[in-house]
Amino acid sequence: MKTAFRSAICATLAFSSRFLNPTHHCHSLILLYRPRRAALFPSKPSPFTSMASADSSDAALSPTIHVLEKQFEEFRHQLDDSASLRERIRSVSFEIESATRLMHSSLMLVHQSRPIPEVLEKAKGQIDVLRGLFCKLAEIIRECPGQYYRYHGDWRSETQAVVSVLAFMHYLETESLLLHAEVEEKLGLNPSEFGLDTEDYLTGICFMSNDLPRYVVNRVTAGDYDCPRKVLTFLTDLHAAFRMLNLRNDFLRKKFDGMKYDLRKVEEVHYDVKIRGLATNAESKGDGEKS
Amino acid sequence: MKTAFRSAICATLAFSSRFLNPTHHCHSLILLYRPRRAALFPSKPSPFTSMASADSSDAALSPTIHVLEKQFEEFRHQLDDSASLRERIRSVSFEIESATRLMHSSLMLVHQSRPIPEVLEKAKGQIDVLRGLFCKLAEIIRECPGQYYRYHGDWRSETQAVVSVLAFMHYLETESLLLHAEVEEKLGLNPSEFGLDTEDYLTGICFMSNDLPRYVVNRVTAGDYDCPRKVLTFLTDLHAAFRMLNLRNDFLRKKFDGMKYDLRKVEEVHYDVKIRGLATNAESKGDGEKS
Amino acid sequence: MKTAFRSAICATLAFSSRFLNPTHHCHSLILLYRPRRAALFPSKPSPFTSMASADSSDAALSPTIHVLEKQFEEFRHQLDDSASLRERIRSVSFEIESATRLMHSSLMLVHQSRPIPEVLEKAKGQIDVLRGLFCKLAEIIRECPGQYYRYHGDWRSETQAVVSVLAFMHYLETESLLLHAEVEEKLGLNPSEFGLDTEDYLTGICFMSNDLPRYVVNRVTAGDYDCPRKVLTFLTDLHAAFRMLNLRNDFLRKKFDGMKYDLRKVEEVHYDVKIRGLATNAESKGDGEKS
Amino acid sequence: MKTAFRSAICATLAFSSRFLNPTHHCHSLILLYRPRRAALFPSKPSPFTSMASADSSDAALSPTIHVLEKQFEEFRHQLDDSASLRERIRSVSFEIESATRLMHSSLMLVHQSRPIPEVLEKAKGQIDVLRGLFCKLAEIIRECPGQYYRYHGDWRSETQAVVSVLAFMHYLETESLLLHAEVEEKLGLNPSEFGLDTEDYLTGICFMSNDLPRYVVNRVTAGDYDCPRKVLTFLTDLHAAFRMLNLRNDFLRKKFDGMKYDLRKVEEVHYDVKIRGLATNAESKGDGEKS
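ok -> structure tokens follow
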């Protein structure tokens, strides 16, 4: 409780550091994370030469110049801080992307009929790495409360890929959908501080769906004739769930439109298996219920 | 102080409402501003029929379906809330743009040598309108703490135009730069809550600079031969101030690059006036004052 | 008859309101639906100051300025009316799209082998909603006779989706094509006033054809081996009918080209069923009927 | 009055011909302008071979096929009629463009200091040609009442060019703006039937403004130092008039934004003339009034 109070106060103070306000008392806070430059700047010669050269002795004009100079010094700090923050975010994003790529490579072995537990084990080893990286990201964002969405673009596509990989692993393990809250839990995200954006989650799930037709094809090749029916049930429910949403975000809507093709492809594999009587035993129970 | 604390706490709680978390205790908070739909939805038939039809008797699978459905219901609410919020923001932005256009139209009379006080008076009438509109915007954003930058794109170009117009008015009145904090004050912005983004301020100032060459040309045409020198001093200082900044934002850098041409153009007018001896009297007086 | 005459006269008069003509006698008609602004505007200060300031004593030039101002006042009204009309159209279009999405969601259950009557019943519930919305649209367009095609782009893709859904429902119910006149009837459209554009109908039918391969695949999976033959007959006739047309509209031609793939896909399913002897009984009966 | 009544009735009937309705009584009207094909078609072999071949003797199925065939025959006529109409419109548009190009060529001589009356005389010779062409266009559109905006895209850019040329001629002759109603009069347009779209007029005026800076430059070169002031007054008023409008049409807004540069350029020429004392006599009267 005490911590919550403190971080809340901190949020209020720090929030205002986003906007220039030379007389604001939160100035001390800004100095916390860039003491070096605050010291450097005063020693630089003034760039205001047009007036300064003509009016060095003119006390009357000085205040204006000083105020202008002070304002732009502030801006310089802000822009530099923002740029270095972005640099740090990008560096972490790059590592996230790298870990995700490793996981995806491991997961692809599932298409070569390697046993699922073995495939998952390798990939799971990277989850702790991801946790650490997202923890780093959350720490960086903690320095600039209220600005999650200011830098969101710098980690969003990497995060969507993470969701996609985790959701595919989860499907392989449980044949069910990895929930939004479960992704946050796996990644050690604290939603009150640095959570998973809903649209990023949804986009990641769409990406995961793109892997399913290939999975179904390769499982059937390996003799698992029951897989298409299961995936079809899962994907049909997922598609129905997405249809509940009014998607106005163009990117997400486009990705969702792609899910239709995954569904159709899985239906076709299911059809192939069914028409050849290969799925007979597995589905006789289901058929009995339907008729 | 007490209020600040309360709103900070509220911010922390509400921040988490951005992310889906069906079991989260802040659920009550979400319901505060959309009770109608929460009541409507349960009465809708479930779209999850593929499993339901096959497994209607299977009690074990039901929870999964319910959790999935519940999660997407949440998403639907979130996306709809976000869309309607965006709708409201856009509507206010549109009004801001309209008021700014009126101010700009009034200001353009300055190019036809109308007396500055008269020109400013008309434009100033709209500042109260703008205050009201930015107050509306701040109220909307107050509903979603921590998401200023999520919707920032929906008011940023309009706000840049506002800065440009206000800064031009301020220059006409005082021959000095309108500071960031002064814009916030004029617009009634509370920087700890809904402030003026620094880059928006800087972009607006660049736009203002684009109006200066035209102003100088028309002033000289109207016989005011002292104007180029004054504007040149102002623009030179402003350009120097911008040069202090490490601009990595592509859009802002491009706009700043344009300021160079404004400066060059004003220099040329100043030169024309000087070389023809038109500014002699005017400037000898000014020079006298300075030396 | 009398009504027809009156609305025709009205159309002729109102048609001319599209074009600026300050002295035109139909001015009274324009005022009918925007009295508020016509009253507001005269109180605004004139923006035409350049001439006014220079020639305030010149009575000869005043008329020109007044005519110019009057013309642009008219334009302002026209453009604002047109913009608000468009706003209203888009809002109705959005509702049409939303109702269509609901219908489509219900219809998708047919791929999961739900009984057709049950599937149709749900979807049919929305037809009345659509009727109401198209009635709204027709009312809006009635305000601007002769301008159906001016705003056509604002409802056309939504209407194509409506045609697609209605035609699919009709096929499920009757195994035949929903005619153009039947769509108009279902939607309560009065072709002499607000009809269904032929190309929109044709495009909607192409969209419907895209759903058929998936339908056939899922019907066969569910054990209905007679479905491919029926759909193939229907689609073959439909494709032949489209081939009668000289399609120069690029969009429609492209959509029609897509129908070829639907046809091919359905043929392949029919072949699969046939070659495995699955359709033997089913078709021998049909063949028997035919020969 | 009698004529108005007749054409209004005709409009109502013909309007419905836009939409397919095989049983509609307006069929006779459609036949008026395509009797040839109506005769041709019945002799063609039926394209419905899938069913027809199998069921030629089956009277039970015939009605469906006949209805389908009949509908698509109708569509074929409609699409062919629409295509040939468009062909005719484009051919007239092409001639309009050609006549406008001739006029523009003649007008360009004004930049070489040819006397204005001489320059105008040549260009005026083409106005009768344009009248004839627009009369042709109106006649074509009269065949499809209520569809002005369906084909509008096929003559709009040509019409904008016509407006631009006529407005420039009018400015040369009168130093004032050619009004919308005056364009219609010059082109013999009857606004109750085939008028000039407001946005086309406005776009044409923007194009005209683009010719003014060059005109001013060349007039000054030829020693006419009074021209910049006059054009500046004209363009300032025109610009102010446009600013009254809420332009949401992107194309028109962009063209209007361009007018700002024309204004600035003319201001600069005016400035050049003024600063060199070349305009002294001409403007002493204006200056006297201002100071």
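Residues 31 and 39 of chain C are 10 Å apart (CA to CA).
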